[in-house]
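COURSE: Structural Biology Practicum
ASSIGNMENT: Worksheet 4, Part C
STUDENT ID: 0417
INSTRUCTIONS: Below are two proteins. For each, the amino acid sequence is given first, followed by its structure token string. Answer the questions at the end about the second protein only.

PROTEIN I
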Amino acid sequence: MTSDRPLLLNNARLVDPASGREERGGVLVQDGVIKDVGSHVAVAADAEVVDCSGQVLAPGLIDMRAFIGEPGAAHRETLKSAGEAAAAGGVTTIVSMPDTNPVLDDPAIIDFVLRRARDNCIVNIRPAAALTKGLKGEEMAEIGLLREAGAVAFTDGARSVTNAQVMRRALTYARDFDALILHHVEDPDLVAQGVMNEGEFAARLGLPGIPREAETVMLERDMRLVRLTGGRYHAAMISCGDSAEIVSAAKARGLPVTCGVSINNLALNENDIGDYRTFLKLSPPLRHEDDRQAMIEALNDGTLDVIVSDHNPQDVETKRLPFAEAENGAVGLETLLSAALRLVHSGQVSLPRLLRALSTRPAEILGFPGGRLQRGAPADLIVFDPDAPYVLDKRQLKSLSKNTPFDEARLEGQVTITMVAGRIVFDRRNGSRDSNV
């Protein structure tokens, strides 16, 4: 339970991407919400005071794309372990993907996940339901019933809906229910046997490539279907400059379109695969450095709306294989913020712009009340030192799976405190303070 006693986070560098606020001050929290915020908030009678020591205090991160093994693959990740990893990385809300066993295509399964998360997870879990039954891409799922059960969006997760008629019908129904479609834009026929970005580097490694057109052809089709139906659409992850141009043109036409990018495609490029590092086998694949720079530019000009972790835990049996045979995916909840801060330290992206893509825009797109430092907003907050250096040791990750692309990487920026609904669930100074899990 949240304490009746107010909590004052004081002596902080406030960064609110929703309002543009950036100043020294504090945040007063009571009953799970922000009661006051600003430079004038320095003392409060009867409040428990936490000295932030000049560190950044910002809204908690909202990750719009994370795969969690439970139900069905709890050996890869449970709701509990995912929550612990998220809290350590400053993620206060996870949108979980429906790629589970059973698939999240039934209201009863959505209800199960919500109840299970409530009892076992220290951060907010908001499930996205399957767009098609069984993720087969053939028959649309019950969007209305699933939305009523608590689904916040609809997606086939790591699969694309290749049938244009099914996608048209889904967008039409989504429009009528004001539901959001999240789509993985990758044409499987063009991907074929490809395992990394098509180009000179793939040729040197002797690996079959995936052309950018596998992404752009599917994305272009979807833009036309959005124009036809008027349904709300979010491209889950784009990875190349051509895709950014397609989304930018759609937005210029006034279409209800948004898009995301994986932190991996912002922080890494195909060269990082090096000597066949399977932890960097991803979907979409890591692209050429020119495409990575195009993604950064798209983030700065507003074409890219959100940054996601694309957290996808895989065990050693699926990753300790030849590159072409290994599964796609990397864990990312715990390293999302640190990896993203590379762009700030390099001077390519401002901190407010970065936090907007990690928190405010996801909240706006999904209709969540968080993502802002304002009175009445949920007290889902993080305190972090953007300059704290460390070398990542995958053995120290809280995720059950250790397939991080940043193993042994030098990173800067560590979360000190994570708060969910006014309760401190992670405190690097003292360990987790949550007593209900």
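PROTEIN II
(use this one for the questions)
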Amino acid sequence: MESTFVSATILLILITDPLGNIPLFIAALKQVKPERRRLVIYRECLIAFCVLLAFMFGGQTFLKVMHLTDESLSVAGGVILFLIAIKMIFPGEGGALGSDKVSGEPFIVPIAIPLIAGPSAMATVLLMATREPDRMLEWVGALTITMLVTTVVFLFSTRLQKLLGEQAITALERLMGLVLAAISIEMLLGGIAAYIRQFG
């Protein structure tokens, strides 16, 4: 499946799922003083951005060291995205924060990692960079826009939750999950097809 700048941006926004993470984000910041929340948001989003950039630029080296192929990464990425999509469509108890109660000011965990830069986001940027390294500037641009969207959503998270309501946010998350499920199947089939072609 050939990605474009727009499709890559949409995919990353779907995976980071800022709207669906609003309730978890608000819970994580409950113990933070109101005057420090904006600073924490900027800091955590910047950390997540740097982590994903590291995975993007270190992708080729990582694959060589681990002796992995693009096809295996594509299949694994498709499986991970499908599991994330299923969780978005059929949300259960808990979430990215687990059952642990967040106390004090969060630093890196749980907002930057895994709320924003989770395993699925890391696998996706790594896959994008290794499959088409000559378009790295586009992938960095897509990631930058995704992080800007995430930052804006988190800055206005309380207002958005009041404006949309929990039911609307849940409906949007399930719709995004459905789209992500289709993308994950396409990625999975693409990886399997590429692997089979090696023996053709």
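ANSWER KEY EXCERPT:
Q1: The two ends are 19 Å apart (CA to CA).
Q2: The longest helix spans residues 157-197.
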